[in-house]
Specification:
This protein is α/β, with parallel strands linked by helices. The chain has 25 helices and eight strands.
């Protein structure tokens, strides 16, 4: 069958847009590491193998997450000996036939830039998220809603094909470029047979088997959208607890105390107990349940045990704080190394070099001292300046080396020392003040007590991140107490907390506090 006959046949079946019988214009938006260049090369190869002239260009964005690279391919039927069509170097708004987005927000960017139009564009997008720097910088939940992009795509595109093509690739031992290529083939929007696409992959000679598996899986998803076979993420079922009989008896006793709690609270208290015990030990877990019992005694079924449920979550977070010991422990766990090897797709025989960025401030160093000594050192500007000179340097530790790994491993094993440290004493005192402040509001304003418990969400992380969160927490609590007698105090506490989570500098919080001061 000639090229003309192939095009006529597909036009008759309705699988090919009539406009694509001339120049086909295809654009790809991908960020670093997603194989946009490889995908572009495959598209060029398959076009040329089918008697088309093709030209590909790429224009890099400002950086990896502030601007995706735009890959652009133009192709047109070409007979040997005929003059070659002059192609454009960049896509133009309203003039793109096929748009491929390697991530959901990149699909949104394509729509905003006018590359996706309802009269001509087929949009193929992966629904997974690779968070932008601007999303990660927000202290709270800064993730942009993918549902809004999907809704816009349904309106903006002539045809919209969406699935988690990254998950398809990972399950088949490949990368997203292969699954997007399969989705392009499965969409039927190009007048080329499946075999031509597969031949382009084979000709590349790298990772062929895995790429072909991902291609085939994505082909089926795109060709049969109603039967999308993207597996759901595995459920996070808790690992069964095991250990020596003596310790298991203590654990079972703690678990029985959790089971005796009201159901809404018990549901949150069990993961809280696991977290606290993992952080320290079984005795620390008993302390967690003692504190939770104090909260429960002030709560009631009439209120639905909301206060106890929220306390179960945030007391656990407060007790399992991030200190030097915990950070070192987390960095040297075997499952972390396994996760990194999996994410980097390290194969047997490959060497993995892993560099950890370790930057404790003078405050973290003093926090490891015995409580009394640490308090004296922390109160001395001279000693704090000296410790800053000695330790305030970003350290790069190669934990694939024995020396660095052992240093962190030994440091992470100092759980037995933790209870004697200045940091532990400070955390315990802060936790007690926070609970006392919240519980004091229960008789007067139950909802305010709940919101004060939830304010613990502001404190997280390590080093500077922890210091900023602690400062915001203290400011929110102080501002809330200024208006604790008002009927809308709980609502204002919630507003203050949300303002504190909006930006790292705390500008939104400053504005909210200023508003409160104007009528307090």
């Amino acid at each position: 069958m000639t090229l003309h006959e192939t095009l006529s046949d597909q036009l008759g079946k309705g699988t090919l847009d009539p406009r694509l019988s001339g120049i086909i214009k295809l654009a790809i938006l991908a960020v670093g590491g997603q194989g946009g260049g490889v995908l572009t090369g495959w598209v060029e190869d398959v076009a040329r193998s089918q008697g088309y002239a093709a030209q590909a260009t790429s224009v890099a964005g400002v950086s990896q997450r502030t601007g995706a690279t735009v890959y652009y391919v133009e192709m047109a039927p070409h007979r040997p000996g005929d003059p070659v069509q002059v192609f454009s170097l960049m896509p133009a708004p309203g003039d793109v036939d096929i748009m491929i987005a390697a991530e959901m927000m990149e699909a949104g960017r394509a729509i905003i830039r006018g590359f996706v139009t309802p009269d001509r564009t087929t949009l193929i997008a992966s629904t997974h998220r690779a968070l932008a720097v601007s999303e990660k910088m927000v202290p709270g939940d800064g993730i942009a809603p993918a549902e809004e992009v999907r809704a816009a795509a349904e309106i903006a595109a002539r045809r919209f094909i969406a699935a988690d093509f990254d998950a398809v690739a990972v399950r088949n031992g490949s990368v997203i470029s292969a699954s997007l290529f399969g989705a392009l083939a499965g969409s039927g929007v190009l007048p080329f047979p499946r075999e031509a696409f597969e031949a382009a992959i084979r000709a590349s000679g790298k990772g062929v088997e895995g790429s072909l598996r991902a291609f085939a899986a994505a082909f089926e998803v795109a060709a049969n959208p109603a039967a999308e076979a993207v597996a759901a993420p595995p459920s996070r079922t808790a690992t069964a607890v095991s250990g020596p009989a003596r310790l298991m008896a203590q654990w079972n006793a703690l678990a029985a105390r959790v089971s005796a709690l009201p159901e809404p609270a018990a549901e949150m208290a069990m993961p809280g107990l696991r977290k606290v015990v993992e952080f320290q030990d079984l005795a620390y877990g008993a302390e967690y349940l003692d504190r939770l019992a104090t909260v429960q005694a002030r709560d009631s079924a009439e209120k639905g045990w909301v206060l106890t449920r929220e306390a179960a979550k945030y007391i656990a977070n407060a007790m399992a704080y991030d200190d030097v010991i915990r950070v070192a422990d987390l960095k040297t766990r075997a499952r972390r190394f396994d996760r990194i090897r999996g994410e980097m797709r390290v194969k047997d025989g490959n060497l993995l070099h892993l560099t950890e960025f370790f930057h404790p401030r003078a405050e973290e160093i003093v926090g490891m001292f015995p409580a009394r000594l640490g308090a004296k050192v922390e109160a001395s500007p001279k000693w704090m300046a000296r410790l800053t000179r000695w330790f305030d340097k970003g350290r790069h530790l190669r934990t694939d080396s024995l020396r660095a790994f052992l240093m962190l491993h030994v440091l992470g094993g100092l759980k037995g020392w933790r209870r004697r440290t200045l940091r532990h004493a400070q955390e315990q005192a802060h936790l007690a003040r926070w609970l006392e402040t919240a519980l004091a509001e229960v008789p007067r304003n139950y909802d305010l007590a709940v919101e004060l418990i939830r304010c613990r969400r502001l404190i997280k992380g390590y080093s500077d991140t922890h210091a900023r969160g602690l400062s915001k927490f203290d400011r929110v609590i102080a501002a809330t107490l200024m208006i604790a007698g008002r009927d809308d105090a709980a609502d204002w506490c919630r507003r203050l907390r949300e303002a504190a989570l909006k930006d790292e500098e705390g500008k939104a919080l400053d504005g909210a506090i200023q508003t409160i001061r104007s009528f307090a």
